[in-house]
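Hey, can you fold this one?
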Amino acid sequence: MKNDGLQHIITGCRNNEWQSQRALYDCFYCYAVVLPYCALEEEARQMLNLFALEGYSHPEIGEMLGISVGAFKSNLWKARADLKQLMVNYLPKKYG
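Sure. Predicted structure:
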């Protein structure tokens, strides 16, 4: 998703401009996933990207980042926990 598209979604959500079911879905996706992910620290986003999106193994990522596999697993667990908490905080109370 391009940044200008994300900005359009955020603006539409803030203004309650839901012209279609797709726009409403985009708004929910933005608040439930994108904004919490963007609020993570850079290191946490990097670890989640390498593991969940790019598919590297724990040993590969540990080597890339210059840390032990155990340290990576611990940091990944913390990143996931932080993301989960942020997602709960960003969802409207009736969904969270």
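The radius of gyration is 16 Å. Let me know if you want another pass with a different chain boundary.
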